Amino acid sequence: MKEYKVIGKSVRRLDAVEKATGTAGFTSDMKLPGMLYGKVLRSPHPHARIVSIDTSEAEKLPGVKAVATHKNTSRELFNTSATMTFTVPPMQPVLDQYIFDNVVRYVGDEVAAVAATSEKIAEAALKLIKVEYELLPTVYDPKEAMTTEAPVIHQCEMKNVPGEVIQIPFGDVEKGFAESDVIVEKEYKLPVVKQAQMETQAAVAQVSLDGKITVWCTTQTPHPTKMILAKLFSVPESKVRVLNPPYIGGGFGVRIGCSAKAEPIAVALSMLAKKPVKVVYSREEDFIASDTRHAGYVSVKLGAKKDGTFHAMHLKATLNGGAYCSFSVETPGVLGCMGLAVYRVPNQFYYGHSAYTNTTPAGAMRGFGNPQAMYAIESTVDMMAEKLGIDPLELRLKNIMQVGDPWVLPYKCGSTGLAECIEKGAKSIGWENRGKLNKPGAKKLRGIGMGVGTHVSNAWPFCGDYDNAYVTIQQDGSVHLASGVPDMGTGTSTTLPQLTAEVVGVSLDRVSMTLADTASTPFDIGSHASRALYAAGTAVVEAARDARRQVLEYAADLFKVAPERLVLEDSVIFPAGQTAGDDCAGSPVCTIGGKERKSITLKELAYDAHQRNKQFIGVGRIVPENAPPWHAHFAEVEVDTELCQVRVLRVAAVHDVGKAIHPVICEGQIEGGVLQGIGYALSEEIKYDDRGRQLENSFHKYMLPTADDVPEIETGLVEAHEPSGPFGAKGVGECGLVPTAPAITNAIYNATGIWFCEIPVTEEKMFRALKEKAGKTV
Amino acid sequence: MSLKILKFTLNGDPIEIAISPDEMLIDVLRDKLELTGTKKGCGKGECGACTVIMNGEAVNSCLVPAMKASCAVVETIEGVGSTDEFHPVQETFMDMGAIQCGFCTPGMIMSAKALLDRNTDPTSKEIKKSLAGNICRCTGYVKIKKAVQAAAEKMREKQ
Question: Which fold has domain A295-460+626-777?
C-alpha cells in the first residue's frame, strides 16, 4: 500500500486555532460601517390572504430606514432550494414562492421586513405594521392535503403535490410477491425534526450605489445562492458576490440555498435603504421558518423466500412538504433510491412524493429522506427476521448489496465494506449477548438492535452537479487553493488542503485555502449530499495535479530530462532514483542561477519562473461520479418499564468511508450523526396545535440530546477503496444519522417485545404501549 | 432610559462603559466591546454558546443583566490562553477533534475552564454535568468530553 505523507493523518484542523480562540469569523458577528438591522414580520396565521397592509406608522418611527413588503419587492417566483431553482431535465423547477406574497401559508411565513438603526427600533416598527388578514381553510397532514375537501395551497397537476410523483420500477414486483413465501407489510409515521444548527440563519447584504451586491451569509451553497439572488433581483451574476465570512455555525442541510430567506430579505432591505443590512434570525424564527426534515408516512411491503432470500419489496412514501416546495421533489427521490439500494431484491417498486400543507416548509436535513426510508425498512427487516426465525444479522448478511449487483441507481456499486462493518459492529456491541441480558421479573429491560444502510457521496443524479478548483503556486513556492465549497464544520478547510499538499508534494503548512466565496473561487454546487470531500475534492486533486504537472514541465527544461523522470516531494524537485541533496554522480543536473544543482526547491523554482514572467496555475474542472458509503449501527438500550424511559447505553457505529483522509474528522461526523439519530429515535419532534402553531420552537421545548445523554459511542472505520473517489475516499457526512433510529427501535423491541412504528419513542408512547401490552397479556 | 456607568474587570483589564440598564451582558460584550468570541445561539439561556466566567462561575451571559456584572471579574474566550501559550482546554480541543463548526466552542471551553479552574480531577459525571448546559449539534460530545478529560490531566501534570 502506498505510504501517504499528508492524507490519512489526523492533523490539527486548520480552522482550530481561530475557533478555539473565538476569533473565527461568523456572519452573526459581522458589523459594517453604517450597517442597519433587519427584522421580519411573520404571519400569525397558518393560511390567510393579506387584504391590506399599512406600513405608514412603521415608516414614521425615527431610526426606520426601509420597510419591505410584497408591494415594493421582487415579484420573481423562485424556490429557496438552490437545486430546485436550477434543476436539470427531466426534473422541472417548481417555483412557488416570492420574497413576500399576499398570501401566507404557514405560521411564521414572511409578511414584511424592516431595516432600522438598531434591532430594538426594527422590532418596535414591526408592531406598527397593520395587516388585515382574511383567514383561509387549512390542512396539516399530507394525506389529507390530497383529498378533495382540502384547500388548495398551490395549484398542482395532482392535488397539492409539488412537482412529480417519483416512481422507480425494478423487476416485476407483483410477480415477486406472488413468488414470496413470507410477506411483512407495515406503515411507519415520521416526525417533523429540525437541524437545530448552532448559528441561526443570517445574512449581511451590501448593495453598492453602482448596483453590485455583496452578501455575507450562512449558506452552504454560495455559488447557487448567488444564482438565486441574481435571478430574484434581475442583476447579472457577475455583479453578485456571496460568501461565508468564512465560517458557518453548522448546517445539516438547512442552508442549501437560502431557506427562510435571510439573504433575499437582507438584499431587498439594503436596496431600499441604500445601506448595508444585517438580518440574524432568532432561535424561534429559525425553528418555525427555516426548512425542517420531511415528516410523513413510509410503508414497506417485504417478501422473502423461506430461506430468508429477499424477493420483492414495495416502498411508498407520502411526505409532508409544508407550505412551499423547497426540496420536496428531490427528497422523496433520494428516499426511494437509498431505500432500494441496500438489499439485493430482484423485484422492487417505489412510489413517493410530498404534499403541501400549512406547516413550515420541509427541506434538506442530514440524510435527506434516507433516515425516513431506513427507519421503515430496517424495522421491517427485523420483523421479517422474526417471522422467518432467522437472526436479524444473518438475514442482513444474506441479502446486502454486493459490488457489481444490478441496482436502481445510474452509477455502479463500486465498493462495499458493509459485511465488514456488520461483523465489526456486532463484535463491538456483543451481539452474541442479545436476548440474554434480562433476568426474569426485571423492571429495567435491556435489548440490542441493529440497522444498516448506504448513502450518496454526491448529489448527482438528483441535481445538476459539477465542481471546479484552482491550485496556484505562489512566487515563494507555497500553494494556494481556491474552492467554492464552505466549511460548515465538516472539515473541508482542512481535508481539501490535505489533498492539495499530498498531490503537489508539499507539507500541509505550505497550503492555504480560500473557500466559499463566489468572487475568488470557481463555481461549485456547494457542501451537501456528503459531497464536499468526494466531489469538490476530486476537482481539487485535478487542479493540484495540473499545477504539479506545470511545475515538473518547467523543471524538466532546467534539468534537461523528461518531466516524468522528476520527483516533487516535500517541496523539493529532483530526478527519480536519487534523493534530494544526493551527490549522485552521473545524474541529471539542473542549472539555475549559474550554479549546477542536483535538486531544486519549489521555492527557488517558483521564483525563477516569476523572474521569467510565469506562474503555475492548476485548474480542476470535473463532473463527479457518485459512490455508496456503507454503515452498520448497533445499539444497546435499557427500557425502564416503570418510568417508561428509554436510555441508550451503547452504540457501535462502523462505517465504510473509503479512504479516510482525516480519520478523526470521519469519526466526528459519525459521532455527531449518531447523537442526532438518538434524538430522532427518542426525543426530537415539532408538533402543531390546531391553529397551526409550532409547539416546539426553542431549545427549551425541542428535546435535543445533551452531553448528559450521550451513551458510549464506539466508532469504527472500514476503508473499502472507492475507485471513483479522491485517493479512494467516499462520503461520510450524513451517514451517522441514517441507521441509528432503527437500531434503537429494534433494540427496544428486543427488550420489550413492542414494535414502535412511530418515532420518537417518547415516555408517553412507551407508557401507552406498555399498558396496552399488559392489558393484552392479563 | 438614561445611561448608567458599568465598571468591571474584563479579561484582567478595568472596564468603564456607559450602558442602558436594561442591556444584557452578552450585548455589552458583543456589540459595545466587540468581543464576538462569545456567541449568541438563542438569547434565552438555553444553549450555552454565550457562556462566560463571572467571579469564577460559568454563566450564560444572555441571562445576566449587564449591571449585575458591576465590580465583577469577567472572563471571556478572548481572555483565555494566547497563541504563545494556549490554555490546556484549547490545546486538547484543537488536537482531539472536539471542534467542528466552532460556534459552540467558545462557550464550551469557558464551561470546561470554569470546571477545571476549581477541580483538575473531575469525574466523567462531573464533566458531563458541567457541559450539560452547552449544546453542540456537531460532535455528539464524545470528543469534547475526552478533550476535557485530557486537559484535566495536562493541568494536573503542571501542578
Answer: Aldehyde Oxidoreductase; domain 4 (3.30.365)
In chain B (159 residues long), the average pLDDT of successive 10-residue segments reads 94 98 97 98 98 98 98 98 95 98 98 98 97 98 98 95
Residues A660/A663/A669/A672 CA torsion (nearest 10 deg): 150
Where helices occur in B40-118 by DSSP H, the ranges are: 88-95, 105-118
For the structural domain made of B4-79, what CATH number should be given?
Answer: 3.10.20.30
CATH architecture under which domain B88-158 falls? Orthogonal Bundle (1.10)
Subunit contact A20:B99, Cβ cutoff 8 A: yes
- Give CATH superfamily name and number for A31-136+198-250+255-289: Aldehyde oxidase/xanthine dehydrogenase, a/b hammerhead (3.90.1170.50)
- What is the rounded average pLDDT of the residues A626-655? 98
pTM here is 0.97
Residue-wise over A51-75: b if at least 16 C-beta within 10 A, else e?
Answer: eebebeebeebebbbbbbbbeebbe
Q: Which residue of A has its CA nearest to B125?
A: A708
In terms of Cα–Cα distance, which of A306, A428, A317, A305 is closest to A374? A317
pLDDT at res. A82: 83
CA A13 and chain centroid, separation: 21
pLDDT in tens, A586-637: 556 666 666 777 899 999 999 999 999 999 999 999 999 999 999 999 999 9
Task: Indicate the pLDDT class of residue A778, thresholds 50, 70 and 90.
Answer: very low
Average pLDDT, integer, range A635-654:
98
**What residues does each domain of chain B span?**
4-79, 88-158
For residue A584, the model assigns a pLDDT of 44
Per CATH, domain A466-622 is 3.40.50.720: no
Instruction: Give yes or no for A252 touching B (CB within 8 A).
Output: yes
Does the structure show a pLDDT above 90 at A92? no
Q: Is the peptide bond before A246 cis (omega within 30 degrees of 0)?
A: yes
Cβ contacts of A698 on chain B, cutoff 8 Å: 42, 44, 46
Domain with CATH 3.30.365.10 in chain A: 295-460+626-777, 466-622
Per-window interface: B 84-113 vs A, CB < 8 A: 86, 90, 93-97, 99-106, 109
Q: What are phi and psi of A280, to 5 degrees?
A: -125, 120
Q: In 3D, which of B156, B135, B109 has the Cα closest to residue A17? A: B109
Write the CB contacts of A512 (distance below 8 Å, at least 6 apart in sequence): A478, A479, A480, A481, A497
CB pairs under 8 A between A and B: 170
pLDDT at A776: 64
Which phi and psi angles does B55 have, rounded to 5°?
Answer: 50, 45
A21 touches chain B (CB under 8 A): yes
| Cell triple for A437 | 441480558
ipTM above 0.90 for this complex? yes
Q: Is A287 helix (H, G, I), strand (E, B) or coil?
A: helix
Mean pLDDT over each residue of chain A, to the nearest integer: 96
